[in-house]
């Protein structure tokens, strides 16, 4: 899964881009606690990293596919 796909899904769930440092972006949510850090690398992001992103965001990964 690529960065743009992850970004689109996070924004659809209400996450807002908060900060970017280097090649990593941080998203925050109005009602959910914490931040979600997403690497903005070219190509596909590792599957285990994508699963971690969904877990941090509180998104059910079966709904994403």
Automatic annotation (TrEMBL):
Keyword Cytoplasm: no
InterPro entries: HicA_mRNA_interferase, HicA_sf
Entry keywords, A to Z: Endonuclease, Hydrolase, Nuclease, RNA-binding, Stress response, Toxin-antitoxin system
GO terms for MF: endonuclease activity; hydrolase activity; mRNA binding
Superkingdom as given in the UniProt entry: Bacteria
UniProt similarity note: Belongs to the HicA mRNA interferase family.
Name by which UniProt lists this protein: YcfA family protein
Species name: Gardnerella vaginalis 1500E
């Amino acid at each position: 899964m690529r960065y743009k796909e992850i970004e689109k899904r996070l924004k659809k769930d209400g996450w807002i881009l908060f900060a970017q440092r280097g090649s990593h972006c941080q998203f925050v949510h109005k009602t959910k606690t914490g931040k979600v850090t997403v690497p903005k690398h070219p190509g596909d992001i590792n599957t285990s990293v994508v699963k971690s992103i969904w877990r941090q965001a509180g998104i059910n990964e079966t709904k994403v596919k």
